Amino acid sequence: MFSSDDSGLPDNAGGTGDASIGSDIGSVAAPVPVVDLLGEDVDITPARHLPSDSVARVSLDLLTRHRSSLQTLLAELPHLLPDLPPDRPPAGAAPRGSSLEELAQSGMLYIRRTAPRAVIEESSLPKVRRTIITGRDLVRAVPPTEEDDVPDDEVLRPRVREGDVLVPHVARQLIARVAQGQDVGAVLSSSVVLIRPDSAVLDPWYLAGLLSSSDSGRQATRMASTLGDTVRFDPRRVRIPVLPIEDQRTHGAAFRRLADLARTLRAAHDEGNALIHDLIDATVSSISAAPELQR
Question: pTM for the full model?
Fold first, then answer.
């Protein structure tokens, strides 16, 4: 509260601007002489004359959990480092290659996307609450992060099954992820392409590894459009070598280990950033709470 009349002020507040003014009033109001408000910069708002909010304290339990989680992730990394491949040219003739579109026509896989927004909005089918997997989730290597009420229809909003290969429709580079864990049961967003291979003839980890290569990215980009620093991909254009299924599974196991390494590195990065941010807040909180700053 502010007043131009000093009569309502405590005896020690008679225009001196003493720091003790309002010390008994609390943190929501303080009597301040108007003359103290009219300095070089005129500011008669109360905020700068009231105690500032204290820095939020970070609990020791939260810091301990972040630190323990980061230690666990870092301890996994040495065991996930892969052996280097042999430095020798492949023997024999190159295996035949087929585009994903050709493989879809032959029944070895099929490619799905969510229906157009207008079709979904016109649907009268009952809606259910589902997790949504987005292209951003794939790029960040995290589980599905969104939820929404969607038509309970596999055609309009396909649901993810274990072993599906998921590709972002728009990204900086082509990456592919084999669905597992929390991915299963989520529905596609418009930014994700679903590729469902017949696992009897096409190993999903082998397929995902090939799609994540630089060469596949170039192929998928040839017939695509650029959107700033991102690219719209068409994975149907990508050609892959179709090996015997046992050979595919051998290569697929190697690709899976690399995917585990990438996931753990990303998780360690995120957990480390969270720990650093909380440690900064905890340090600032301890500085703000120092006795010399409370006088």
Answer: 0.72
